[in-house]
């Protein structure tokens, strides 16, 4: 049965279970009961399934995101496939970051990465992109870097393989919760283009609970952007970020 766990992983799984049991015994449920009500955990076991199925495993990640009262507060991005796995962990509120990043570009986590280029990389999906995104890359004088998976794209930003990233198609919250928390802990930002277009402001993307079929202000479509959901990712060292975002509405 291909779904059975291989025997070589039994000891490792048992060890993790024992550690989880030890941690659970140390938690006072009554003390933290109210806190638990405000927390939501988003887990994506395979971010970048298309890449995983097409032999681009280096672009796949495992994502864990912790959201408190609608705001991402902690996250983990982990690339398990490369011989030397890379990862990033972050919590902005605690000013904490950790990880092993592929800053020397030894792993093929994206295509078209140009070392030492005067132009900056603009990270996009491996597939087709909207006319808006294509024109924006040209307007900013950047070049396109193709990569799969939200977690991997954010890792590429942290590793300096790209300066910004626009998601110009639908995306699930388990895709963005962990990467957003990590990115913001490192000094970056994730925002809906709605706030940029309407008010020239970078509003952090939120994860609020809404009633069935009720519009969420954080997931409304922007007609001028082909009606597509488009959060924006930027690195901390992206110069004049507000000015660059203003170009989105020019």
**Helix residue percentage:** 25-40%
> Would you count the extended β strands for me?
10
Overall mean pLDDT: 78
| Strand portion | 15-25%
Helix segment tally:
8
Main β-sheet: number of strands, strand sense, barrel status? Answer: 5 strands, antiparallel
Structural class, please?
Answer: alpha+beta
Q: How do the strands line up in the largest sheet?
A: 1-2-3-4-5
* Low-pLDDT regions: 213-231, 233-250
Shape: globular
Terminal CA distance reads 57 Å
Order of helices and strands: HHEHEEEEEHEHEHEHEH
Give the C-alpha Rg: 19 Å
Name the features.
single chain, 250 residues, alpha+beta, 5-stranded mixed sheet, 22% strand, disordered C terminus
């Amino acid at each position: 049965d291909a779904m059975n766990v291989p025997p070589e992983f039994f000891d490792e799984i048992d060890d993790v279970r024992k550690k989880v049991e030890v941690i659970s015994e140390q938690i006072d449920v009554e003390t933290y009961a109210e806190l638990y009500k405000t927390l939501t955990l988003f887990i994506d076991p395979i971010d970048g399934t298309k890449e995983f199925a097409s032999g681009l495993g280096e672009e796949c990640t495992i994502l864990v995101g912790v959201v408190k009262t609608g705001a991402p507060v902690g996250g983990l991005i982990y690339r398990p496939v490369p011989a030397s796995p890379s990862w990033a962990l972050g919590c902005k509120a605690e000013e904490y970051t950790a990880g092993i990043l592929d800053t020397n570009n030894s792993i093929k986590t994206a295509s078209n990465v140009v070392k030492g280029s005067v132009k900056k990389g603009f990270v996009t999906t491996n597939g087709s992109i909207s006319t808006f995104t294509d024109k924006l890359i040209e307007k900013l004088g950047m070049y396109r870097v193709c990569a799969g998976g939200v977690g991997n794209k954010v890792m590429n930003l942290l590793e300096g393989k790209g300066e910004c990233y626009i998601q110009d198609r639908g995306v699930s919250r388990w895709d963005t919760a962990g990467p957003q928390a990590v990115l913001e802990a490192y000094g970056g930002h994730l925002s809906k283009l709605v706030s940029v277009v309407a008010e020239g402001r970078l509003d952090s993307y939120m994860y609020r609970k809404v009633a069935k079929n009720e519009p969420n202000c954080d997931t409304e479509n922007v007609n001028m952007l082909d009606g597509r959901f488009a959060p924006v990712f930027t690195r901390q060292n992206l110069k004049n970020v507000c000015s660059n975002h203003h170009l989105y509405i020019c």
